[in-house]
Specification:
The protein is α+β, with helices and mostly antiparallel strands. It is 19% helix and 37% strand. It contains three helices and 17 strands. Strands 1, 2, 7, 13, 14 and 17 form a six-stranded antiparallel beta sheet that branches. Strands 3, 6, 9, 10, 11 and 15 form a six-stranded antiparallel beta sheet that branches. The protein is globular and about 55 Å long. The two termini are 15 Å apart.
């Protein structure tokens, strides 16, 4: 009876841990409706998971706010022509935001949701998503992207993050930084994330409670009991 009780307790603990992770939903997101003048930097998220802290959407120091900005969009003007991603990074020509799991939780990322971008004729023709966890070096997410110059912008497909092991089950205290590097601009043009057909900018995923040390020990003990029962 004692063994059965312990096994049932461990099973219940496992069920509670599994139930704490919800289906993929927006972890951090921004709507750009009503924004003027390129938007604030950092720009506070308009939606976020209750179990994370989100650092605002922030312009790198290489992005300015010169000239008239587009409405319902967030972005900046480029300081000078940058031929490639390395040059843009060196000049801080990028936009960033961070997501950090709250104490007692871990966060996993499934995708950067479909979004819309716009650039001027002399703005950056290419971009590259990157990520960093904690103090680690940045890594590329997928391939370089191409941006058009139409006033309606370009709707970019969702970016799959599920295959990046470093972005799964990231524990509290490890800030995940997402970065869009913008380059191949021929001058001091502009770049924006905009609402487009109604979407803003968001990243989706799940959060899950990290079991307390006592719960972990209980799970291990239950496994040991089950193993012994199979041998008997």
């Amino acid at each position: 009876m004692k063994k059965n009780t312990m096994t049932l307790m461990a099973a219940g603990t496992c069920a509670m841990i599994a139930a704490s992770a919800s289906n993929a939903a927006v972890v951090a997101g921004w709507s750009f409706t009503g924004l003027t003048g390129y938007g604030a930097s950092p720009l506070t998220a308009t939606s976020s998971d209750a179990n994370v802290t989100v650092g605002g959407l922030t312009r790198g120091s290489g992005m300015g706010t010169a000239s008239t900005a587009a409405a319902n969009a967030w972005g900046g003007s480029m300081g000078a022509a940058r031929v490639d991603a390395a040059a843009a990074i060196n000049a801080s020509q990028f936009a960033t935001f961070t997501v950090t799991a709250a104490a007692g939780y871990a966060v996993s990322f499934s995708q950067i949701d479909a979004y819309n971008v716009r650039r001027s004729g002399t703005g950056p023709a290419n971009g590259q998503w990157q990520y960093s966890v904690g103090s680690s070096a940045f890594s590329n997410i997928g391939s370089a992207l191409a941006f058009t110059t139409t006033s309606g912008g370009t709707t970019m497909s969702a970016v799959d993050l599920s295959g990046f092991s470093a972005l799964q089950s990231v524990a509290a205290g490890s800030a995940v930084t997402f970065r869009m590097v913008m380059y191949a601009n021929s001058g001091t043009g502009t770049f924006y994330f905009q609402n487009g057909s109604g979407s803003g900018l968001s990243v989706s995923g799940t959060t899950a409670a990290i079991p307390a040390p006592g719960a972990v020990a209980l799970i291990g003990l239950a496994g040991l009991v089950a193993s012994r029962r199979r041998r008997n």
